[in-house]
């Protein structure tokens, strides 16, 4: 399985290989149906979906409110900063579950796009795309697992369960076996949340990376138009026509995944802004050294939830601009009138970039991160100037 991270185990890669790890996690959380185990998959996926959509968002908030008398302000804020993320988890996970077939439907289109590139350097770029896409999923899983393990260790040192989720007839303070039962159940639910968060946060990056690769391949192909020796004028015109069709297929690909990314990223941007504000209050006002380290790790995870997607979206805009510039670098001067007319049409179409917006309100790019960071610092400064931090301490 890990050979794919280094590009070993196969000689030919395709863009479809980019989503192997992604859909393995879909299968792990019970979303991807298995033909040979329909009933078991339905029960397994139904239980996990019910836990994420209904059980966890309710119980996570009731649990810390139930034990708020024995929790410190730092522990309460740590619960809040974690539970804020669960408010958007049901919405994002439901959207992603409903869109599973839509995401899967792009694979025949990707196969069709890859078939148009036969040169070694183009195949190398497709191979790089597949490796990077799976590395992204692996990296997200690793980072989130590090936070989960640090949180579990902290809970063990405090002799306190992670969430204290409600289990019938179980009081974790009453006996040792009940504590370990509660702790094991909480850890299991934490892993369920973790893998759902991996899906929600890395699927936009993976698909934007695929789109970027196709745009880059097309730009390189356009740049080579009219430069190949011993190629007739008619063959050059046909190749330009194929480039225009490829560009239209890329726009079709964007049209499939863009609505899904728009909805889930809008929810994530709102959640991230709230979490950053709460976490900063906890770090700078209430947290001790251990809690500060955990909160900083959590803050890094929160930034990771949006920063990679915003970065790749900004890079996609740059790639679209380079596609327009590559048209000027082809050997259009030596071509006939028909070629130049088609090239003008292609130039006009290529000027339409591929903007990604969160519900048509917020542009998904690096400027969104700056806006959220400014909002969080503004909120923290407001709380400090108003003396709310001193009131909470007292």
> What share of residues is helical?
over 70%
In the sheet with the most strands, the strands line up as: 1-2
Distance between the termini: 54 Å
Query: How many individual helices?
Result: 13
Could you tell me the mean pLDDT? Answer: 81
Shape: elongated
Number of strands: 2
**What integer value in Å does the Rg equal?**
25 Å
Q: Low-confidence runs (pLDDT<50, min 5 residues)?
A: none
Largest sheet: 2 strands, antiparallel
Provide the β-strand percentage band. Answer: under 5%
Give me the strand/helix succession: HHHHHHHHHHHEEHH
Structural class: mainly alpha
Characterise this structure.
- It is a single chain.
- With 394 residues, the chain is mainly α.
- 77% of the residues lie in helices and 1% in strands.
- It has helices at 3-6, 20-28, 38-66, 73-98, 100-104, 107-114, 120-157, 176-223, 233-286, 289-329, 337-350, 366-385, 388-393, and strands at residues 357-358, 362-363.
- The mean pLDDT is 81.
Brief digest:
It is built from 13 helices and 2 strands. The protein has 394 residues and is mainly α.
Task: List descriptors.
394 residues, mainly alpha, two-stranded antiparallel sheet, 2 strands, 1% strand
SSE blueprint:
Blueprint: H1 3-6, H2 20-28, H3 38-66, H4 73-98, H5 100-104, H6 107-114, H7 120-157, H8 176-223, H9 233-286, H10 289-329, H11 337-350, E1 357-358, E2 362-363, H12 366-385, H13 388-393
Antiparallel strand pairs: 1-2
Helix pairs in contact: 2-8, 3-4, 3-8, 4-8, 4-9, 7-8, 7-10, 8-9, 8-10, 9-10, 9-11, 9-12, 10-11, 10-12
